[in-house]
Amino acid sequence: PQPVAMAAAAAASSGSEKPLPQTADEVAAELARAERELSRPQRLAQKVFECGLDDSLVTAAEKETLRKEILEEVEAQEMSTYYQVVCERLGWPVDAALLERMVAKNDAKIKEFDAAITDARENYGDDELYERVRVKAKYFVQIGDGDRAGKAYAELGEAKVSVGQKVDMQMEQALLAFLLDDAKEAKRRVEAAKELNDKGGDWDRRNRLKVYEAMSLAWGRQLAEAAELLLSCVATFTCAEMMSYSGFAWYCIVLSMVGVERARLAKKVVNAPDLLSVSAQVPEAFTLVRALHDCRYADFFRALTAIAPALSRDRFLGRHVALYVKEMRVRAYSQFLEAYRSVTLEGIASAFGVSTSFIDAELARFIAARRLNAKINRMTGIVESTRPDSKNA
Predict the structure, then answer these.
(1) Suppose 11 and one of 16, 74, 305, 377 were both cysteines; which one would form an S-S bond, judging by CB atoms 3.0 to 4.6 Å apart?
(2) 66, 58 contact by CB (below 8 A)
(3) What is the largest CA-CA distance in the chain?
(4) Which neighbouring-strand residues pair with 343?
(5) Element holding 377 (H helix, E strand)
(6) How many CA atoms lie within 13 A of 278 on its CB side?
(7) Which residues contact residue 268 at a Cβ distance below 8 angstroms, ignoring those fewer than 6 apart?
(8) Nearest 5°: phi and psi at 330?
(9) If we measure between CA atoms, which residue out of 90, 47, 52 comes closest to residue 68?
(10) d(CA 9, CA 34)
């Protein structure tokens, strides 16, 4: 079975000599471990983002815990360059002794890589040379050194390599851009990888690139477009280097509510078996989408308030929380009004669990901005739908 094979491959790649997992629980545990190992750099980037947030979002105690975890990971992965980036970004003092230790390890590794590359160039063929140069390039990615990684990959690009290998190089540099919080570079690398893959790549790379592109789009406020890409990967997700499946499910659910119409939302999200399988791991997201789908608008508003802190702390969506919350309110009001030709302000306020004055101001603002097809008669306190009648159009 595929999970057993994946677990076996993960164990082999890590150099583990433990017996292969046999039971379903053992396979699941091994897959989870392998998944977490692959996504370590991206989880580290998330921690760095959280450390830079205001104390109202992340407490001082939480930041101290995050700081310790970041430093442990940075030292374990010998990330001398990334450490300096983080210190500058967060205003941390540089630990000269720690930096010196990591740089020494970097220099020793690079010396080994250069010796192996020289040996391959003198005694082996192009394939062996490519593999050894790529190991060096990936090490620069590991330590967060964008400049030296770029030079190493440029050297690789001049070699006789397959289209698939060229795609891999662009994807690895995209991952580095995601780590370094460089949205522009990430977008450039993803677009280059897509263009190459269209010329002769494979299904797996195409599938993983959809997740890369979706997160790049989410960074750029293109939330509905990102949702469509993620929805196309629900049953075929393999992009563990970017995030876990539960993390993927969270983004998929949250983003799909921006533009996916209600009937399709039920099929693709609310009742999707693959997403339901991790519903216990993303309870706030499922509470939100179910409340919207079931037209429980007061519950929806409460769920939106409950999930807002998680949105604010997310490195892809945190910059767009105000936009997201606004779009969710418009979505809920639009869905509610679709069921009525006219309805009182009191009726809407009661359905949403808010005051009449609040709903009056909200609707007036969105109607003025042409986000809602309705008008308010303040003499009678009635909201009338002004959407075109498709039967008489």
Answers:
(1) 16
(2) yes
(3) 89
(4) 383
(5) strand 374-377
(6) 20
(7) 231, 234, 256, 260
(8) -60, -45
(9) 47
(10) 9
**Strand, helix or coil at 385?**
strand
Q: For the beta carbon of residue 238, count every other beta carbon within 10 angstroms.
A: 14
Cβ neighbourhood burial of 27 (10 Å; 0-12, 13-18, 19+): buried
Contact 138, 76 (CB under 8 A): no
Tokens of 220: 């750029």
Distance, in Å, from the CA atom of 200 to the CA atom of 392, rounded to the nearest integer, reads 50
| Partners of 374 in the β-ladder | 385
Give the pair of three-digit tokens for residue 268: 């693709």
Rounded-to-integer distance, Cα 140 and Cα 79, Å: 9
Q: Is-contact 48 90, C-beta < 8 A?
A: yes
Give yes or no for a contact between 317 and 254, defined as CB atoms under 8 angstroms apart. yes
As a whole number of angstroms, the distance between CA 70 and CA 92 comes to 12
CA distance 297 to 350: 9
CA angle 371, 373, 374 (to 5 degrees): 115
Phi/psi at 385 (5° precision): -75, 140
Distance CA 126, CA 120 (A): 8
Two tokens, residue 9: 């491959």
Report d(CA 187, CA 222) in Å as an integer.
Answer: 13
Tokens of 30: 């091994």
356 exposure class (CB count in 10 Å sphere: 0-12, 13-18, 19+): middle
Tens-digit pLDDT string for the chain (393 aa):
334 444 444 444 444 455 666 776 666 666 666 667 888 999 999 999 999 999 999 999 999 999 999 999 999 999 999 999 999 999 999 999 999 999 999 999 999 999 999 999 899 888 888 899 999 999 999 999 999 999 999 888 766 778 888 999 999 999 999 999 999 999 999 999 999 999 877 899 999 999 999 999 999 999 999 999 999 999 999 999 999 999 999 999 999 999 999 999 999 999 999 999 999 999 999 999 999 999 999 999 999 999 999 999 999 999 999 999 999 999 999 999 999 999 999 999 999 999 999 999 999 999 999 999 999 998 899 999 986 654 444
Which residue shows structure tokens 């539960």?
246
